[in-house]
Design goal:
Length: 152
């Protein structure tokens, strides 16, 4: 019988809120040796994910977008909106300011193969697992899938 998300996910993941101080989230990631955390609102609904990738902006900073001047106009060679978003992440002090919003999620009854396709297609490292009421009950990572493959 094919494995489902519920068979291999990590249950009861650590959750943070948008107002959680960034230093606290970094501490959790470091101490628990995990690479990301689901972010929930006051109703317990997932609103984002904070990951190592989101936090790298804090350390690396942001390079302004390249531009050229032409007839007293500035022509950006890259999207200035992306620069503003990345700058916000680099200067953020709370999880909500730095997290990736609108995360892709999955339900526990889905086949593991489907979860693997979603992770591959969307190039994400983790999927929050939601129950029928939209509450986070687990998290499925690339590592979970690899470990499941090793036991087949």
């Amino acid at each position: 019988m094919p494995k489902t998300v519920a068979d291999v996910m990590s249950s009861n993941p650590i959750l943070v809120r948008p107002e959680t101080p960034l230093k606290e989230a970094i501490q959790i990631l470091a101490e628990k040796r995990i690479s990301g955390l689901p972010v929930i609102d006051d109703a317990g609904k997932v609103v984002g994910v904070i990951s190592e990738t989101d936090l790298m902006w804090q350390e690396t900073g942001v390079t302004p977008p390249a531009y050229i001047m032409f007839l007293d106009s500035v022509i950006y060679l890259q999207n200035p909106g992306a620069y503003e978003r990345d700058l916000h992440k680099a200067l953020g002090q709370t999880v909500g300011e730095v997290m990736s919003k609108s995360p892709i999620t999955i339900t526990p009854d889905k086949p593991l193969k489907e979860a693997a396709k979603i992770i591959q297609e969307y190039k994400v490292h983790r999927l929050p697992v939601l129950d029928s009421t939209g509450q986070v009950i687990g998290i499925l990572t690339r590592g979970d899938i690899i470990r499941a493959m090793a036991t087949e």
